[in-house]
């Protein structure tokens, strides 16, 4: 009689580093993958490769110089950073910009949203294997960059926001040129939208990749297109109605399935909304002078604190500003959307294939320089040491 034998299967886990310098990543970030064969079973998100100390710089410069510093937190969405900081200052000073300035602020931020979404959609095409589609999207994105240059005087770093208004007005010639460029972009966006919807390879690479459920978005505090791609209808523009968002019609775009494809479709929907908003602004621009006299702005700020939010292209961005009564802020605290979306989304890679990891990360539209490490100083001993982001309070593991 032969006794039955039992085979015990022992899983072998392989640790695979993706980053901090990797062809699939556009910024320094380490995803430490633990894989069983081709299946990912765990991911550690490790940041800390691009710290610039922006918040500390803000404490050493005046309130007005800091407008230029915070605009350099992110090169892609610099206008929204400056807008959020400037509005926090306006809340402390009790300043309400004129209607024309509010409309022009929204115009700058929606142009920024357009070129940001076109950029990440191009990167998504590249990660799916379409280099040509990447180049075409980037080529047509240049129309938006030119429109931004016509409005603000700068192609990338706008430096457009100021306390009490904006730095430049527009005339009829500029309005006509911007409208023409936006109409060109609209036709191209329709073409790319159709390509994403119909191309078999793009659908196979994006669908079911990194699916995030509605409840998981809420549990992990995800924001922006990542949240809206899972059916969570959250958008600071609609909730706070800051600047002129309460007067300009637009829809909050959501998708229900929550995968990388749904997040791409949210961005296409928001591109259409931004295009319509730009058209509305340029054809309904209020009269008046949107440029304040800087010489009349106060040099010192009252002892106070202020908090402002803005819907950046990647999601909710917040600024907390504290004043001790001098010409420099006592504290400037910035929370960017990538902090939530990248650090708190490690669960989305689990049970996915290794080859899908870059596509999933790209669907979050990561901005790594926004979300870096802290240096803690032990005042008693005078020593300095690095603290990982997850060790700080308020961040989910």
Quick overview of this protein structure:
This protein has 397 residues and is an alpha+beta fold. The chain has one domain (54-391): Cytochrome-c3 Hydrogenase, chain B (Orthogonal Bundle).
Structure description:
With 397 residues, this protein is an alpha+beta fold. The chain has a single domain, classed as Cytochrome-c3 Hydrogenase, chain B (Orthogonal Bundle). The protein has helices at 54-60, 66-70, 78-93, 99-127, 131-152, 172-198, 200-206, 214-219, 224-228, 236-240, 260-283, 337-343, 357-363; strands at residues 14-18, 30-36, 39-46, 161-162, 165-166, 304-312, 315-323, 329-335, 374-378, 383-387. The strands form four sheets. Strands 1-2-3 form a three-stranded antiparallel β-sheet, with no helix packed on it. Strands 6-7-8 form a three-stranded antiparallel β-sheet. A two-stranded antiparallel ribbon has the order 4-5. Strand 7 (315-323) and strand 8 (329-335) form a beta hairpin. Helix 4 (99-127) runs antiparallel to helix 11. The longest helix is centred in the first third of the chain and has 29 residues, at 99-127. The radius of gyration is 23 Å and the shape is globular.
